[in-house]
Each structure stands twice: as C-alpha cells, then as structure tokens.
Write a structure and sequence with these properties.
Blueprint (H helix, E strand, L loop, with lengths): L5 H6 L1 H4 L1 H11 L12 H19 L5 E11 L2 E9 L5 E8 L5 H19 L3 E6 L2 H8 L7 H14 L4 E6 L5
Parallel strand pairs: 1-4, 4-5
Antiparallel strand pairs: 1-2, 2-3
C-alpha cells in the first residue's frame, strides 16, 4: 500500500523513461497490486490507545508513584498550561493546553493541576506526586493556605474531590528554573 504515484509510472513505462521501463519489466514478473493507503490518522490513534492502555493495565495494583508536573500561565494574548506525566518504564506524556477563556495565573495553575489529575486518573494510577511552581496553589491544596477567593475555593474543592481518587496523593512545590 502506498500513496506514491508509482503505479501510474510503472503502468506507462514509455512515458516514464528508459530506467523506469526496465523496472516495470523487472517488477512485472511479481503479482503486484497497487492500492491507496488511505488516511493513517485512525491507526495512529489506535496505536496510541493500545500503548497507553497496556501501561495502565500494567500499573494497576503496582506500587509505583506517578509524577505529575504542571505549570499554568497567563498574559494578554491568552492563557494556557503545560502538563508532564511520568509513569512506569519511562512512560512520558506531555500535554500543552490553550484555554479559550480568560484566566489569571492562579486559575491557569489550577486548570493545569486539574487536567493533569484527570489524566492520571484516566491512566488508572493510584499513587501520585503532583508538582507545581505555584506557591498559592500548592499551599491551598496542602492546607497551608486558605482559599478566600470564591473562584479559588471552587478550584480547590474540585481538586480535593479528585484527590480522593488516589491512595496517596501528594502535592509539592518546585522552584522555577532560572
């Protein structure tokens, strides 16, 4: 299967030139049939699902702590987040998120944490270490700080619900690289 136009060239060797005519003669003894490859997008998704589902089934019951690193940011052009998930056997999943709504830096940090926790939950992991460079978010999640803003309180409440999905969730602050 190929998307190349080789079948047209080999079926009309007189147009293609002497070298292609020789190849057409050489290949004619084999029963070669040409078919278009079709879109490979579906196969990529299938391979991705198989790869991740095998990692998730491998992980069930294991005592491996998944490491989630998140970072959210906001500026005049918009807001987004980055999520990196490290799993067993060197499994590394990276996601970049762009939000279609306005968010400040703290909201973007929470959105990143929530997206990452949902990903970890979907992978079937039971133990989690979440890392963020946001002092406010990590302080609120660990109980060191109170969430006085109603939006931050809503984010914190949802994170607390997600934390119940894990046996030993842990949140830690990491310093930004300088």
């Amino acid at each position: 299967m190929t998307n190349l136009l080789i079948c047209k060239v080999l079926q009309k060797p007189d147009v293609a030139g002497r070298r292609m005519a020789r190849w057409a003669v050489e290949l004619s003894e084999f029963d070669i049939h040409y078919a278009p490859r079709g879109p490979i997008k579906g196969q990529i998704y299938a391979n991705f699902v198989v790869e991740l589902s095998s990692a998730a089934t491998y992980q069930e019951g294991a005592d491996f702590k998944w490491v989630l690193s998140v970072d959210g940011s906001s500026n005049q052009q918009g807001s987004g987040a980055g999520v990196i998930l490290e799993g067993p056997d060197g499994l590394l999943i990276e996601q970049a998120l762009h939000f279609s709504f306005k968010a400040n830096n703290n909201q973007a940090e929470y959105e990143a944490l929530i997206a990452g926790m949902l990903l970890v939950k979907e992978m079937g992991a039971r133990r989690l270490l979440a890392k963020s460079d946001s002092l406010l978010v990590t302080g609120q999640v660990t109980g060191e700080y109170q969430a006085k803003d109603p939006q931050m309180a809503a984010y914190l409440e949802y994170v607390q619900v997600l934390k119940k999905s894990f046996d030993s969730p842990c949140t830690q602050r990491t310093k930004c690289p300088s």
